[in-house]
Amino acid sequence: MVSLTIVRDSGYADRIRKYKVVVDGAVVGHISNGETKEFPVSPGHHYLCMKIDWCGSKPVEFTATERDTVTFRARSNLRGFKLFSALWRVLFDRDSYILLERFSE
């Protein structure tokens, strides 16, 4: 199995809410503010995204082989002055509410 690791940044927006971890269209778990979690996935090509209510991240593609550890960082896109764009993101740009990036060590 492949280990999919999600590192969720700690931030003000969504502090008390969990993000859904969605792999290939299926919810595989939840992650809280400032938490790091691992999820087992099968080897191969996958799509990953995060969801909170009707908003979320853009889907990210990744391919993993047996015994790989794939790590992504998730954080709210509502930081600094972007906090004032919350209503815009919720209504018109729902797939950019959460930033999801591949994390390389």
Mind explaining what this structure looks like?
The protein is mainly β. It has a single domain, classed as Immunoglobulin-like (Sandwich), CATH 2.60.40.1120. The protein contains one helix and nine strands, in the order E-E-E-E-E-E-E-E-H-E. The strands form two sheets. Strands 2, 3, 5, 6 and 7 form a five-stranded antiparallel sheet that branches. A hairpin with a 2-residue loop joins strand 2 and strand 3 (26-31). The two termini are 20 Å apart.
What is the compact description of this entry?
7% of the residues lie in helices and 50% in strands. The strands form 2 sheets. Strands 2, 3, 5, 6 and 7 form a 5-stranded antiparallel sheet that branches. It has a 4-stranded mixed sheet with strand order 4-1-8-9, with no helix packed on it.
Give the CATH H-level superfamily: Carboxypeptidase-like, regulatory domain
Stretches where pLDDT falls below 50 for ≥5 residues? none
Order of helices and strands: EEEEEEEEHE
**Mean pLDDT, nearest integer?**
86
User: Can you count the helices?
Assistant: 1
| Proportion of residues in helical segments | under 10%
Distance between the termini: 20 Å
CATH architectural type: Sandwich
Structural category = mainly beta
Query: Based on DSSP secondary structure assignment, what is the total number of beta strands?
Result: 9
Strand content: over 45%
The count of domains is 1
> Shape from CA axes?
globular
Query: Quick one: CATH class?
Result: Mainly Beta
* Cα Rg: 14 Å
- Outline the biggest β-sheet: 5 strands, antiparallel
Determine the CATH topology. Immunoglobulin-like
